[in-house]
Amino acid sequence: MLNVTKTFLPEISEYISYLEKIWHNGQVTNEGPLVKELEKKLIEFTGVKHAIYVTNGTIALQLAIKALEIKGKVITTPFSYCATLNSIIWEGCEPIFADINSKSLTCETSDISSKIDSETKAILTTHVYGNAGDLEAQEFLANEHNIPIIFDAAHCFGVNYKGKSIFNYGTVSTCSFHATKVFHTIEGGAIFTNDDKLAEKIRLLKSFGHKSDDYFLPGINGKTSEFHAAMGLVNLNHFNKIVEHRKLVFDWYQTELNNLPNLKLFKWNDNIEKNHSYFPVLFDTESNLLNVVKEFNQKNIYPRRYFYPSLNLLPFVSRQNCKVSENISKRILCLPLSSEITYEEVLEVCTILKTNLK
Ligand SMILES: *Cc1c(COP(=O)(O)O)cnc(C)c1O
């Protein structure tokens, strides 16, 4: 069986060596030494001033919205995982969709701009597939209107933009360390910011809002365990090797699938150093995509429709049109990509794709 991704698992002995540390320390959660060590390494790795390690990428978004005291309309993308949208709604805000650019698949700056009004409290968009859209223009727009901009950078661990970590952008950037992501801690996520005050507030909010006997804010439990941090510390040592293999796979796909009729490959922003987390292909029609997926599934191959459906069409949001996102979400498919997939497997995927492409 070949899935869209396969979770990287290190040698069990490496993980056990960290478990021994946990037993030695006697602390299993509540900002233990391994959580602190992982946060320190995340800061070193990204060059962002603050990294706050939390339970998952969704709570990372919620904590960012909460800490920035965003209440009201939030301009967001229809082309993302539902967690982006859900975090907005869960925090009692109203999502206003800005359609995406057909190339970057991130929000079109002019559409964000046209939807901003006096009731807009924030912008929250996604760097889809670890790609960058109009980052600077959107930051500028947010600054101009004096509202925060949150980047859901769940796909972006290891991604650089213009030579520095993409997590440096936005008022806040969040990441997911879920088992399906390129770097994982089983479950987990992080909030990155260069703002000292905001970082302190988020830290407080993720630990119930109190420091020992001093109660400041109605916080939540967004803490992570030492067991999760341990997986992160081990996996971080393998990260370069993982990305190296993924880059190879990427090149194999690109060579095999270049210049096919009725199939387009995704192009990343020239200023991006990729983490090779996804390999999306765009079909000319949805029926072509569905036909190919059927053939894949019969051979036990399970690519994923990242992202389908367009979030503006979900039954619990008010009707808003996003023509580009609706069109692309029907036709885009992410092919299997992992640190373990072999050349033979990639060739098989490509052969099935090519023989069934009409
Ligand atoms: C995975 C993902 C999330 C959610 O992260 P979790 O750690 O699973 O909660 C949010 N946004 C995007 C774009 C994602 O891909």
UniProtKB/TrEMBL annotation:
Entries under InterPro entries matching the protein: DegT/StrS_aminotransferase, PyrdxlP-dep_Trfase, PyrdxlP-dep_Trfase_major
GO molecular function: pyridoxal phosphate binding; transaminase activity
Domain of life of the source: Bacteria
Signal peptide start-end: none
GO biological process: polysaccharide biosynthetic process
Residue numbers carrying N6-(pyridoxal phosphate)lysine: 181
Keywords, in A-Z order: Aminotransferase, Pyridoxal phosphate, Transferase
Stretches that traverse the bilayer: none
Enzyme active site: 181
Pfam families, A to Z: DegT_DnrJ_EryC1
Family: Belongs to the DegT/DnrJ/EryC1 family.
PANTHER family assigned: PROTEIN RV3402C, TRANSAMINASE
Protein name listed in UniProt: DegT/DnrJ/EryC1/StrS family aminotransferase
Annotated source species: Sandaracinomonas limnophila
